[in-house]
Design goal:
mainly alpha, 8 helices
């Protein structure tokens, strides 16, 4: 949210958490552009014939976010939660379309650090399954992958959101990337 005055989003989130509905109305214009950026980031990795549009994904994520009464602490935490919601919306959408079993013979490579090419519902479900497996083993690594891949957050933003050092983010990112690569390769071979 480049136009955001330092702490303005955090302050509005705090007021909203305290029950100030006017703060929510003031927050919407500040976060809408960021939600659109996240939606675009997500959808550019989706299959070319995907029927969800950025606006629909933003609106659905926003409705879930407002309805969740999540205790959002700051801008980075907001982005992390919105990223998770958008990922879940896309996974729910893929499941509702009757996608193939999670392994489905998909071939997802994790060579690109910023974007995971997802060309089918089966690949999205496989990625979601692998990320869920990673999160069960190491929740922090799962959050880092989700924030980086799906939220487009930088290492400093992830560090701020999780309250850990940049070195820890970098180390966990490298470890998680290798784990996901091996896990998904194994899954695709079975």
């Amino acid at each position: 949210m480049p136009d955001d005055q330092p702490g303005e989003v955090t302050e509005l989130l705090q007021h909203w958490k305290e029950g100030d509905e006017e703060a929510l109305r003031a927050l919407v214009p500040l976060v809408y552009r960021e939600l659109r950026r996240l939606a675009h980031y997500y959808l550019r990795s989706e299959r070319p014939d995907h029927t969800l549009q950025s606006t629909e994904l933003v609106h659905e994520a926003y409705l879930r976010l407002v309805g969740s009464q999540a205790s959002l602490q700051n801008r980075a935490h907001f982005i992390a939660v919105a990223s998770r919601l958008m990922r879940q919306i896309l996974v729910d959408y893929a499941r509702s379309r009757g996608a193939a079993k999670r392994d489905g013979g998909c071939k997802i490579t994790l060579d690109d650090l910023d974007v995971i090419p997802v060309n089918s519902d089966a690949e999205l479900l496989a990625l979601d399954s692998a990320l869920n497996d990673l999160s069960r083993i190491d929740d922090r690594q799962g959050k880092i992958v989700e924030m980086k891949f799906f939220g487009g957050l930088s290492a400093p933003e992830i560090s701020e959101a999780l309250g850990i050092s940049r070195a820890t983010v970098d180390r966990d990112w490298a470890t998680a990337r290798v784990w996901l690569h091996r896990h998904m390769r194994r899954t695709a071979q079975t």
